Amino acid sequence: MTKKINKMSHKEQDNIPVSHEEFDRAIKALLNSPPRKIRKGKK
Q1: Helices (H), the chain
Q2: pTM (2 decimals)?
Q3: HSE of 12 in the Cβ direction (CA atoms, 13 Å)?
Q4: pLDDT value of residue 3
């Protein structure tokens, strides 16, 4: 999902409805994932 969101413009990101629960889950998933995967995702 992060790759798709990064390709979108900031306006499109604001229009995406995301609940606080989904947002928290995404953050926890990133924090719990290995550093290697996070680095690859940022690139």
Answers
A1: 2-7, 10-15, 20-32, 35-42
A2: 0.34
A3: 6
A4: 61
